[in-house]
Amino acid sequence: xxxxKKTRQLALILLCGAVVCxxxxxxxxxxxxxxxxxxxxxxxxxxxxxxxxIYHVCFSPxxxxxxTRDRDQTIRLWDVAAGRQLCKLFxxxxxxxxxxFSPxxxxxxxxxxxxxxxxxxxxxxxxxxxLGKDAWKVRFSADGKTLRVAGHSRFYQYxxxxxxxxxxxxxxxxxxxxxxxxxxxxxxxxxxxxxHAEEIDLRDxxxxxxxxxxxxxxxxxxxxxxxxxxRFLAVSCRRRxxxxxxxxxxxxxxxxxxxxxxxxxxxxxxxxxxxRFLVSASWDKTLRLWELxxxxxxxxxxxxxxHVCAxxxxxxxRxxxxxxxxxxxxxxxVWDTAVISAPRPADVKRIDAEALEQQWNAxxxxxxxxxxxxxxxxxxxxxxxxxLLASKLEPTLRQANAQRIKxxxxxxxxxxxxxxxxxxxxxKKLRPASDGLLQKTxxxxxxxxxxxxxxxxxxxxxxxxxxxxxxxxxxxxxxxxLELIADKLSRExxxxxxxxxxxxxxxxxxxxxxxxxxxx
Length: 520
Fold this sequence. Notes:
- This protein is an alpha+beta fold.
- It folds into two domains: 39-339, YVTN repeat-like/Quinoprotein amine dehydrogenase (Methylamine Dehydrogenase, Chain H), CATH 2.130.10.10; 342-520, no CATH class.
- Strands 10, 11, 12, 13 and 14 form a five-stranded antiparallel β-sheet that branches. Strands 1-29-28-27 form a four-stranded antiparallel β-sheet.
- The longest helix is centred in the N-terminal third of the chain and has 31 residues, at 2-32.
- The chain is globular and about 80 Å long.
């Protein structure tokens, strides 16, 4: 009897142990693939023995699909929201150097150093056409009717959908050219030469001629990126931890930033679509976000278990994709840009009126990481922070309200010369806020002098910024906070900045922010 009782107890213990082991086994994959903070989706499975590593990521124009290129040259399309594979375009047959979606997202172009260009149907995964035999970089035109291709020593342009070569290729170099990146308008190409790998040539894509050369790289580049407006160029180099950034408006080719922070070499760089951030991916398994305005690091993003080798923004900038390659991690992660750039505080109850005033001051800080922490706090308590922002902006926007501008325009027709002169000077200062009413008056006025004064005002240059560096930083960061909050009052404030802020470049940033919100 005692023996039977002990046997039953032993059996029960063994059964419980089996259940616990089975439960742990069942939960292990879920725990292993748990998303890190800020990530919204993972493409692929951690620990997948068949995974070959992902070396390229690219969003579709609507941001709903992600294209990835594996180390074995397989191209896969993924549903971003679900993290689910949609289709596989091909296997181990081509050596791919670039991937690009058409503007309508229905086609995908791939470029190969030897295989040339292939066009694919993104719905079926079928190859539609093969063009040429030399393609390092491929980009569709804005209307999707042509495809621009950069090869080893020539530029090509194909008519779509026929694939007809538009013009005869012209050799631009006797030795091989290594294309790195097209400018956003496709008019320039950043490239290196095999004999000058430590220099970046900017080439005119119509003539092939070198427009300028940027020097100072210690080794050849691993990644080259233009900012969305084509003004800045960022470069990461092999076996180097720093990122070099040039302002291409500087004709002296002086290096703008030499960004340091990564502990191991940087593999890839990309600008955000709004030009606010530069993101870098490194062998140290991190992504880092840099504020372009100051060149300062604002966030270190962790979550990959192997070195990060590719990074890309969605067209609206709301999502960021990164990918890794290694035995422990051959997956792609999609991140919420707002969360990783301006993390929300854990305890919002402590954000009282005094704390909000401190956050307002922090927006102007010369320490970017403090400013973006303040943005996160303001977003977390938007119902209280937006009225504060409105009160802070009101004195500045009041200076350029419609009533004042109308009054000054009336003074252009004053009987007193001094008053007409003073009104002219003031209206010049209020540009671009005064442009709309000036143009309306110009079309309606019958006074030759008023017409002449308005034409003179509108032909003049918009006054340069008189903002201090700290006020400029604060206003740019404030615009970002308002865009993240995106409620009715935030939009009204952005509208006020876009039309009444006494600084043209700042007003333009707010206007673009409104355009992005309108597109959502």
